[in-house]
User: What shape does this take?
Amino acid sequence: MAGNLVNAGSLLTCTMGATPAALVVVVPTTTAQGPPAANIMDFAPMTNIPTFGMCMSLANPMVAAATAAALGVLTPMPCIPVTTPWTPGSLLVKVRLFPALDATSKCMCAYGGQISAVTTDVMVAVT
Assistant: This one.
């Protein structure tokens, strides 16, 4: 999967989330057929990275409070990602002036989850 670029619609998973979610790329990057390619700056919570259903991280204040109220029994709560830019991105391909998002890229959530793409497409280099 290394070298494959991530595009709109690629499935994402979070290590603290319950379900996969599809990446959303807001700005189309090419007029060619196929979904638009993503770059490392496509990390906006709920805009680019949707919810992963329920969050299971005790670093999430809602999960911590619900778990405390349940006397220590882990109680997942709705996922609202708090993300940072993807790293490292493609070393060779740029999309909209930033490194393209590739299969090795990861995005971190402030609540401890690691987000990664589980499906990718081989894309033509676009700038």
User: Anything to note?
Assistant: The longest helix spans residues 61-69. Residues 1-28+35-52+80-127 form one domain. The chain has one domain: 1-28+35-52+80-127. The CA atoms of residues 12 and 117 lie 4 Å apart.
